Amino acid sequence: MNELFPRTSLEQWRVLMAIVEYGGYAQAAEVLHRSQSSVSYAVARLQESLGVTLLEPEGRRMKLTAVGDALLRDARPLIDAALRLEGRARALDQGWEPEVTLAVDALFPTRLLLKTLSEFAGTCTQTRVQVHEVVMSGADEALYAGKVELAVVRRVPQGFIGDWLMDVELVAVAAPGHPLFQLERELSLSDLVMHNQVVLRDSGERHPRNDGWLGAERRWTFGNPQTMIEVVEAGLGFAWLPIDRAAEGLAKGRLVQLPLKCGQSRKGDLSLVYADPEHTGPAVKALANCLRSVVAAE
Fold first, then answer.
1. Each residue of 15-45: pLDDT tens digit?
2. Separation CA 190–CA 280 (nearest Å)
3. Which of these, 264, 261, 263, 237, lies nearest to 188 by C-alpha position?
């Protein structure tokens, strides 16, 4: 006879997911604000109920077995759905969400983000904001994982619908003393690949992208946009930088646009994506409206 109720709970699967994501029982216990013994017990009961081994040690970390990996992939959508349901209940009960989460790609100008947050603070005085600063596919992963309710992305990920927000211009620049300027002529791709290209690392881990990389072996990669700019200003390479981030360096002579035959500037477009348009709370909608109004005022 079929069982009417499952023998495992979503909480047990959530504990398993935390162990995998954070590397062990102690780390998961800290993140979940639980004792290590309760974390161990939850996984032991889960394995006992299923009759399979889900975890095995790998050095100091715990990793999923092949069976555990397959089962956790199936469980993730259920956990995400439950978390969305709980979030929806809180929003309905309180009217305005106590917290909103936003992922912002590094292409989005910081000054516009600050204006947006300032405007939002005047509208939703009791709502906290968590901003996830991401690069490229990092926004996709934040949406897929249910970590954010709103995202400013370079590409609208599969399964989501987005609205165009703005275009961002990127310009090819280097420090004035860079060897490329010593050629004293228009530059081609063959000139560029002989020098270090400075690029920003994709913050996503599952399917990282290399947007903007020329394909040359001489590449320096950084995770922080400001560090990337300082490296270029120090004469250690060239880069395509968002005009907003390059503006101060260009104005003060620390950066100079490269005289390229073509491709001296590029356009990147940003879109605004709701994680769950049908169940979006008023605070998330207000934050999205602030983003649109600030961009429109430029």
1. 998 898 888 899 989 988 999 999 999 999 9
2. 49
3. 261
Round to whole Å and give the CA distance between 21 and 11.
Answer: 15
Whole-prediction pTM value?
Answer: 0.67
DSSP state of 238: B
Give the residue among 213, 262, 261 at the shortest CA–CA distance from 237: 213
- What is the distance between the alpha carbons of residues 218 and 198, in angstroms, rounded to a whole number? 9
Q: Is the pLDDT of residue 3 over 80?
A: no
At residue 92, the pLDDT reads: 57
Among 241, 151, 159, residue whose Cα is nearest residue 197: 241
- Cα-Cα-Cα-Cα dihedral of 32, 63, 11, 46, to 10°? -140
Can you give the C-alpha Rg of the chain in angstroms?
23
Give CA–CA dist 162/146, Å, rounded: 16
d(CA 140, CA 137): 5
Give residues with Cβ within 8 angstroms of 50, minimum separation 6. Answer: 7, 8, 71
| Cα separation, 225 vs 141, whole angstroms | 19
pLDDT of residue 216: 61
SS3 state at 56:
strand
Each residue of 111-148: pLDDT tens digit? 999 999 999 998 887 788 999 999 989 999 999 999 99
- Type of residue found at 162: G
Bridge partners of 200, per DSSP, are 222
H or E element in which residue 274 lies: strand 265-274
Q: Give the pair of three-digit tokens for residue 89.
A: 């209940």
**E strand residue ranges, 81-226:** 99-105, 128-134, 150-153, 162-174, 197-200, 219-222
Cβ of 137: how many Cβ atoms within 10 Å? 23
Residues 214/153, Cβ–Cβ less than 8 Å: no
How far apart, in whole angstroms, are the C-alpha atoms of residue 48 and residue 74?
Answer: 18
